Amino acid sequence: MTSFRRFMQNRTGMVGLLIVLIVALAVLIGPALIPYGPEDMDFMAILAPPSLAHPFGTDSFGRDVLSRVLLGGRVSLTISFAAILVAAVLGSWIGILSGYHLGWTDGVLMRIMDLLFAFPSFILAMLLMVLFGFSSVNIIAAIALVYLPIFARIARNTTLLIREEPFIQASRLMGRRPSAIMLTEILPNISAPILVQASVGLAFAIILEAGLSFIGLGVQPPTPSLGGIMSDGREYFSRAPWVLTMSGMAISVALLGINLLGDGLRDLTDPKLRERA
Amino acid sequence: MSVPLLDIKGLRVGFGRGAYRKEVLHGVDLHLQRGETLGIIGESGSGKTMTGMALLRLLPDTAQVAQEAMLFDGTPLHDLDETAFGALRGVRMAMIFQDPVGSFNPAKRIGWHFRQVMKRAETAAGGVQPTGDYRARAVALMQEVGIRRAEDSVDLYPHQLSGGMLQRALIALVLALEPDLIVADEPTTNLDKVVEHQILTLFKQIQRRLNAGMIFVTHDMAVAASLCDRIAVMREGEVLEVAEAQRLFDDPQHDYTKLLIATARKLASPAAPRGEPGRDKPPLMQIRNLSLVFPPSGPRPAFRALDDITLDIRQGEVIGLVGESGSGKTTLGRALLRLYRPSGGTLLFRGEDITRASDRALRPVRRELQMVFQDPGGSFNPRKLMKDSLAEALRAAGVTSSREIAARTAALLERVQLAPEHGERYPHELSGGQLQRVAIARAVALDPALIVADEAVSKLDVSVRAGVLDLFRDIQREKQLSMVFITHDLEVARYMCDRIAVLYHGRLLELGPTERVFDSPSSDYTRTLLETLDYSLGGRNFGQAGYGGTGTERAHAD
Amino acid sequence: MSDLLGTQPKASSLSDRWGPVALYLLKRLLSGGLVLLAGTAAVFFTIQAAPGDPALAALGEQATPEAIAAFRAEYGLDAPLMAQYLRWLLGFFQGDLGQSLAVARGMPVGELVLQKLPATVFVGLFALFLAVVLSLVLGTLAALNRGKATDTIATSIAVFGISMPDFWMSYVLIFGLSLGLGLFPAFGYVAPGDSLLGALHAAFLPALAIAAPMAAVFARTLRAVLIETLSKPYVTAARSFGLPRPFVILHFALRNAMVPYLTIVGLQIRYILGGVVVVERIFGIPGIGSLMVDGAFARDYTVLQACTVVFLVIVLVVNIAVDMICALLDPKQTVR
Predict the structure, then answer these.
(1) Which residues of B touch C8 (CB under 8 A)?
(2) Structural domain includes residue C99
(3) What is the CATH number for A167?
(4) B: neighbours with 3+ CB pairs under 8 Å?
(5) Which structural domain, as residue segments, surrounds residue C119?
(6) Membrane-spanning regions, if any (chain A) (predicted)?
(7) Does residue C3 belong to any structural domain of this protein?
(8) CATH no., domain B316-340+352-535
(9) Chain-centre distance of CA A191, in angstroms?
């Protein structure tokens, strides 16, 4: 619990955590509290500017932008979170295996990761979306594949750093199985950098998903997504800037929260900063 | 004498603010005459390094420094602004650091450092036209401190030189300044003994030539005794006592000083020989023509770490592997335990060939071959309680019932003279000495036939070393197990071992009973190594005789 | 013990260092070639494995079997997969990337790519330049004033920067600097060959939109690395020799921070190129990104494949260039 108490003292991290909690709460229960559904069209209020009735205004179909942003946020966040979860779990496993066994296991796995890593992230995701279709599962898979090599590399590098540590050697000398050593000795001790990377990755995944949906190669209408709403909004950007602006701000707030939280976690796990405290 | 070169009164250094403020120096008083060497002795956390850094204003901005007085040659340093202070630092005051490799800019050649330092010293002195011929002067200085092929070395990058050569280069840089005050912070701690001896001699010569005052920070009693005129003993941010070197050893006042000296004396006296245990029994481990080559990786070429080593490890004996860094002693220790796979030769354990056994095949044998590591902090999973680490070892040894595990854990802790509550702590909550005790307990928990101890006390403070060594020895006798004791410290080797194996560049140079190796070494290299013992406590050149004798020219402080 | 043995390496002049660097370059080119080969194969076979038929995509769902067969024969889609790949690869090395199936039907994709490449390279380099300059200023200021107001402001700017995706940044810039202040055009592209100043003017907003989030990432990296090098013993040693602070910062701290900083810059090229695609679309820049999006919507597999490979080549070239700069900056890599 000492780690948690230290985190509580980290102002950046706490602000980030607060924003993330508010965002999570908003997208989870927000839509239920708003009187309009995301698909409810009000032809009396087409492109209405922000008002008390519609805090974020309405779009060209008279749909409430706040309601759409919250639901779109839920979709975007769920997809990004799932993608990073898959990438982190799979990537850590590959990385630990590589870093512990070295030799040809390492050679083969890491060459595959290098290959994945050589493609620009957005291009790779875009290509996969076009080829395999726009379902949510495919978006998750595409984003996960883009981030897989990053997690694998971090897990491998940190494993390499600690694999010669005396406590790992001591475990080997006890005659314990490699799988047990990887699970109980290595994994707990490399989880911190992976967690930090996951928070950074989540932010990038949100950007990636929003970018795909923004150019129309991600979540397909009528399902709302943050990128999709922004894309709608740019068509009447000069007449009704609030659609684009509000959805853009929503993305920024979510990203800000995640990035601040990530910075807080990084401060917490950086041994140099820890020494100072 | 007239004005002291340096007069410090009530120096305090603190970090942090408010409730988080922590004071690390609590009012230090020191003074120093021109031409005098003042040793500051202390263990980790004593504040000995902080004192020199505060003097040269090298502490980070977060440090708060306060003093009653800090006079350099009569000038109050604390009144000087940055510009005025800058005219002293790097001109009349210079510092030499513990890590010679880290002290050089890795992206620049050695000669570049000389050029920058000389140029800046000339500007600071003012008036003098830059001579421009920095290179020739650098070469001359480097020759003076004994750097071979100085004309070539001046164009090398720091990573191309050894630690000893870089420390010489750093001394040459200081020499270029001709300062009045030199602060040396553990300047030989990272160096091998033979090199350390050369560098210390050099220090004394340089100081003599410049007639500078020198503050020499060290944790090594013997070094301080041989090099310094007076010695200040520090602990936890306070100076416990200051005395002339000889008097400090003859008549220490403070209990802590007495403890330090007693520990050093104990290790300096050879233990009573006990014959050669296990001589008439079949050997536990037979090493035949063992070699090990590390394959090339990146810019590093292939490296032959072990070369044709033949050696028996007898039952119940303590055998010492002695050598300097790069001699292959640690590699040999790890190869014995099959943490490395030998490239050639054979390795027999109880007559069974384990040279190329797979990890899976080794698993049943592993338990019998244990190790205690150099770094106590890294020896335990930082996320496990000490008792859980012990329980893990017991489980690996086949103990299954949780009640028995609890009982055995408690017994093990007691055996290594720790309390049960130590088991409830995390590694970072224990001191180095305590961790090393738990590490011994963990090794013993597996009931091994052989324990390899790799520099197991070299990272511990001097005052706890003897205790841990005695524990090793008691447990070895009690369990009748064999022990391979890897160390660079000849005193530790003599104190612990029945037989000594001297390694040099991966080869076995000499092997024999401890007494024989120390009394009549058969190789020149061993003789060179043993000569460094002359400067240790009780050695021929210990104290004022050391490093060229300081008695006559010593400036009396009082 | 090398002190006793006297084994000391020979000094090396700068010209000696080109040898190892050239050798390293050769090695990197070779491994880059292998990655390219594996990459093209991966792209080719993934496209083949994907559901969906390029002929159907190009001709529409109502196409007759005869029309489809004719289409397949025309574009060589009826040959075995391996043969198709080898033919594609052979063409690739001769600059022939096949014919467009849909975007500009029948037109050689190589020509299309050559038309579009300069705009992408120009905007990309401009963005990279802006990101590096911005981050050097921001990161250095923050590290040197660690914990002070300047640091707080700089790190806050950086956190806001990484929280602004490039497509959203584009509209903020358009809204502020184009529609609001009328300083820069909101749309369009001028080729640098026609007017360099005009090109820079036109490309400023898209380049800045791509650069802003990257600058934030770079600045955070530089700050962290610089704080690390500032705490190295050689910095303390340099101060103890009285070397002036600006000199120590420049030649000790920043100099040694460059290699890790550039390494991160090289890795980030993956994300920069992603930004290029979206931002080209927003600002109407006729680049590879726009071409690839067109290809994606038209399901033009030859165009998609060609664009992906071109992006792969760009990443490889940038990474090799960064590695070379790092090798030249780091004597440990080139001098033994």
Answers:
(1) 148-149, 152-153, 156, 160-161, 165
(2) no
(3) 1.10.3720.10
(4) A, C
(5) 110-334
(6) 12-34, 77-100, 112-131, 137-155, 194-219, 239-262
(7) no
(8) 3.40.50.300
(9) 17
Whether A31 maps to a domain, the answer reads: no
Q: Domain of C148: which CATH number? A: 1.10.3720.10
**Residue A47 placed within a domain:** no
Where does chain A have alpha helices with state H?
Answer: 2-8, 11-33, 65-101, 103-118, 121-132, 136-163, 166-173, 178-181, 187-215, 226-235, 241-269, 271-276
Predicted complex ipTM: 0.84
**How many domains does chain A contain in total?**
1
pLDDT in tens, A29-73: 887 777 777 777 777 777 777 877 777 777 777 788 888 889 889
Domain assignment of residue A79, yes or no: yes
Q: Which residues of B touch A170 (CB under 8 A)?
A: 371, 373, 379-380, 439, 442
Which pLDDT score is estimated for B132?
66
Interface of A with C in 107-146 (CB under 8 A): 111, 114-115, 117-124, 126-133
Nearest to B69 by CA among B30, B43, B34, B113: B30
In chain C, the residue whose alpha carbon lies closest to the alpha carbon of B167 is C3
Interface test with C, best of B53, B110, B116 (most C CBs within 10 A): B116
**What's the pLDDT at C194?**
83
Q: CATH for B34-57+80-267?
A: 3.40.50.300
B173 vs B179: CA distance, rounded Å: 11
Triad C146, C152, C153: Cα angle to 5°: 125
Q: Is residue C9 in some structural domain? A: no
Pairwise CB contact (< 8 Å): C255 & B105: yes
pLDDT in tens, chain C (336 residues): 344 434 445 555 555 667 777 888 898 899 899 999 999 999 888 888 777 676 776 677 777 888 888 877 777 777 788 888 888 888 888 888 888 877 777 788 888 899 999 999 999 999 999 999 999 999 999 999 888 888 889 988 998 888 998 889 988 888 888 777 878 887 778 888 888 888 888 889 999 999 998 899 899 989 989 998 998 999 999 999 989 889 999 999 999 999 989 988 888 887 778 888 889 988 989 999 999 999 888 888 888 889 999 999 999 999 899 989 988 888 887 766
Say whether pLDDT at B544 is over 70. Answer: no
Instruction: Look at residue A12 and tell me if it is in a domain.
Output: no
% of chain B surpassing 70 pLDDT: 94
Encoded tokens for A272: 């140099």
Residue C75 in any domain: the answer is no
Burial class of residue A40, CB neighbours in 10 A (0-12, 13-18, 19+)? middle
Instruction: Tell me, yes or no, if the two domains B34-57+80-267 and B316-340+352-535 fold the same way.
Output: yes
pLDDT of residue B558: 32
B155: tokens are 């164009």
A122 to chain C: which residues are within 8 Å by CB? Answer: 271, 273-275, 277-278
Q: What residues make up the domain containing A229? A: 63-276
A255 with C277: Cβ contact below 8 A: no
Q: How far apart, in whole angstroms, are the C-alpha atoms of residue B122 and residue B118?
A: 6
CB within 8 A of C165, min separation 6: which ones? A207, A210, A211, A251, A255, C213
Contacts of A117 in chain C (CB under 8 A): 270
Of C38, C159, C296, nearest to A259 by CB-CB distance is C159
The predicted-structure confidence for A202-251, as pLDDT tens digits, reads as follows 999 999 999 999 988 888 888 888 888 888 888 887 788 888 888 899 99
Closest residue in chain A to residue B20, using alpha carbons only: A277
